[in-house]
Amino acid sequence: MIERRLSGVRRVPVLEGVAGWVPPRVVANDELPAHWQTDDTWVRRRTGIGTRHWVDEGTSTGDLALEAARGALAMAGSPLVDTVLVATSTPDHPMPAMAPVLASRLGLGSVAAFDVSAVCSGFVYGLATAAGMIAGGLAERVLLVAADVYSTLVSPDDRGAGVVFADGAGAVVLRAGEPGEPGSLLAFDLGSDGEGHDLITVPAGGARDRAEPGRYEPVDRYFRMSGREVFQHAVTRMTESSLAVLKTAGWAVEDVQRVVAHQANARILSAVGTRLSIPDDRIVSNIERVGNTGAASIPLALAHAVERGEVHAGERVLLTAFGGGFTWGSVAMVWPDLPSA
């Protein structure tokens, strides 16, 4: 586990733009496949989700990432960055990484560009990566995009994952700034536990598949998750990580004015809030309308919170996530005064 406070360094990342993007196709609970044998009440009771967005044929992760990136750059007031990071579990291709292609589509030239792979914790890991590059003088302005299209990765016969996972993208622009100024990211906590690697996984499709011909079935190329076991791990790790990053930042739980957690499931969000003793009105959530969008969930929730006026300049904000690997992480930051979305 890594815990770091950035107030002791001269350069810290400062948030200056955020945007989200979801595909236009909205799928309500009553429109889910009939063979899943669900209804609106059943889905809402178990997940808190009412609608989600799925891509249409011909739309890829990169297309969603492009739209979110454009929005974040527009809010930041400049299309110029020197580093592009993309967090995703559903890349357009196994190789090359998505970030160089995205940089090219944005017309950014020969900037540094690479992907971050930490499943649903990818955005938090990406923030930490950007922070390290800015602190070390390797970057001045970083575009971080998180995007996933889980509707293409979940088996058509997997009701449990199918009702939860959705498609979306979120992006932020970070610039080098001074510790303590509005928008600054102050502290990080990162961790992992590879013993849980098989509880959130896509077993086939990689080098292991090619190294052991005949081992995997076609269904093994789809996403799978052991929901009950993951629930407990997610609640425990996000709670512990949140407390660790607050300690590193020198904040008490009572100091936190907004919590933006990975939008995994409404029951997980509620359980984390309860364990942290944070009131429901301080927890930002958009899962009811967009579902679980993987790595995109935190920046997409932030973008929607800005649109709805739910987060304000100067507020102390806690970000926390949990994903496959297992991976988890948290960030403590002070919210900036952003232009209207």
UniProtKB/TrEMBL annotation:
Q: Name one GO molecular function term.
A: beta-ketoacyl-acyl-carrier-protein synthase III activity
Q: What is its EC number?
A: 2.3.1.180
**Which residue intervals make up region (ACP-binding)?**
263-267
Q: Does the keyword Metal-binding feature in the UniProt annotation?
A: no
Sorted alphabetically, which keywords does the UniProt record give? Answer: Acyltransferase, Cytoplasm, Fatty acid biosynthesis, Fatty acid metabolism, Lipid biosynthesis, Lipid metabolism, Multifunctional enzyme, Transferase
Pathway involvement? Lipid metabolism; fatty acid biosynthesis
Localization, UniProt:
Cytoplasm
**What residues does the Beta-ketoacyl-[acyl-carrier-protein] synthase III C-terminal domain cover?**
246-335
Reaction equation(s) it catalyzes: malonyl-[ACP] + acetyl-CoA + H(+) = 3-oxobutanoyl-[ACP] + CO2 + CoA
The primary location reported for this protein is: cytoplasm
Where is the secretion signal located? none
Location of the Beta-ketoacyl-[acyl-carrier-protein] synthase III N-terminal domain: 114-194
GO BP term (any one)? secondary metabolite biosynthetic process
In this protein, the active site sits at C120, H262, N292
User: What does UniProt give as GO cellular component?
Assistant: cytoplasm
Q: Which residues cross the membrane?
A: none
Q: Which PANTHER family match?
A: 3-OXOACYL-[ACYL-CARRIER-PROTEIN] SYNTHASE 3, BETA-KETOACYL-[ACYL-CARRIER-PROTEIN] SYNTHASE III
The UniProt similarity line reads:
Belongs to the thiolase-like superfamily. FabH family.
Name the job this protein performs: Catalyzes the condensation reaction of fatty acid synthesis by the addition to an acyl acceptor of two carbons from malonyl-ACP. Catalyzes the first condensation reaction which initiates fatty acid synthesis and may therefore play a role in governing the total rate of fatty acid production. Possesses both acetoacetyl-ACP synthase and acetyl transacylase activities. Its substrate specificity determines the biosynthesis of branched-chain and/or straight-chain of fatty acids.
Q: How does it assemble?
A: Homodimer.
Provide the domain comment. The last Arg residue of the ACP-binding site is essential for the weak association between ACP/AcpP and FabH.
Tell me which HAMAP family the record gives: FabH (MF_01815)
* Protein's recorded name: Beta-ketoacyl-[acyl-carrier-protein] synthase III
Q: Per UniProt, what is the name of the gene that codes for the protein in this document?
A: fabH
